[in-house]
UniProtKB/TrEMBL annotation:
It is found in: Mitochondrion inner membrane. The gene is LETMD1. This is LETM1 domain containing 1. Residues 69-243 form the Letm1 RBD domain. GO terms for molecular function: ribosome binding.
Length: 243
């Protein structure tokens, strides 16, 4: 159990499906950016030092910066969901998705049963993982802090891979139990799944993570597009986090 926790914590902290190759590639890309544009103030430690070397204040500041970047795509993703509502063949599912989007735009945190009611929407056209449009995938990639500078087939493959890894981590974590995690492990797990946990109390983070796991462990592989969108759906209004 201890070994499982260590493996999970490392995966959660470094972004689960980020492989060493992609990690190195990202560092090289960031290094080239600094060389090309010069080293702006406050940029160097965030971009070129791994998280282990950040000070506690830098950890909070930098995680806030990264979350602000992914948050920029949240309303864009909700807009894409609204646009495809007429393309959904089931009138009941159309209504459920429309209600979900309206609630989110009003600042309401959706209930678990409201999200799970949409399972069939996300396993086939137009919201299944294999049917998502390129601009939609780019917005989802930004929400996952993944590069958008890839052709659509590679964007889709990367989103599938990351979502599948998170789904597997969720199943392992559910077996372990959220209560077995330390405060830092809980906050890291929440941040990986879309919630800016840096300013949220530990007990609230545990509650949110429990909601996420309940949704994730209910979904089948064909429904993982919903889990991908859950990065936005479940986090955008939690405790008024949309500012």
């Amino acid at each position: 159990m201890a070994l499982s926790r260590v493996c999970w914590a490392r995966a959660a902290l470094w972004g689960s499906a980020v492989t060493p190759g992609s990690f190195v590639t990202r560092r090289l890309q960031l290094g080239r950016s600094v060389l090309a544009w010069g080293a702006p103030r406050y940029l160097f430690p965030r971009q070129l030092l791994i998280q282990h070397f950040w000070t506690p204040k830098q950890q909070i500041d930098f995680l806030d910066i990264y979350h602000a970047l992914r948050k920029q795509s949240h309303l864009e993703i909700i807009s894409y969901l609204e646009r495809v509502i007429p393309l959904i063949s089931d009138a009941g599912l159309q209504w459920h998705l429309s209600e979900m989007c309206t609630k989110i735009q009003r600042g309401i945190h959706p209930a678990i049963h409201d999200i799970l009611a949409l399972r069939k929407c996300f396993c086939s056209h137009p919201l299944g993982m294999n049917q998502l449009q390129a601009l939609h995938m780019k917005a989802l990639s930004r929400a996952m802090l993944l590069t958008t500078y890839l052709p659509p087939p590679l964007l889709r493959h990367r989103l599938k891979t990351h979502t599948t890894v998170i789904h597997h981590l969720d199943r392992a974590l559910a077996k372990l139990g959220v209560a077995q995690l330390t405060a830092q492990e809980v906050k890291s797990a929440c941040y990986l799944r879309g919630l800016n946990s840096t300013h949220i109390a530990e007990d609230r983070c545990r509650t949110w993570l429990g909601e996420w796991l309940q949704i994730s462990c209910t979904l089948k592989e064909a429904e993982l597009s919903l889990l991908l969108h859950n990065v936005v759906l479940l986090s955008i209004n939690y405790l008024g986090t949309r500012r």
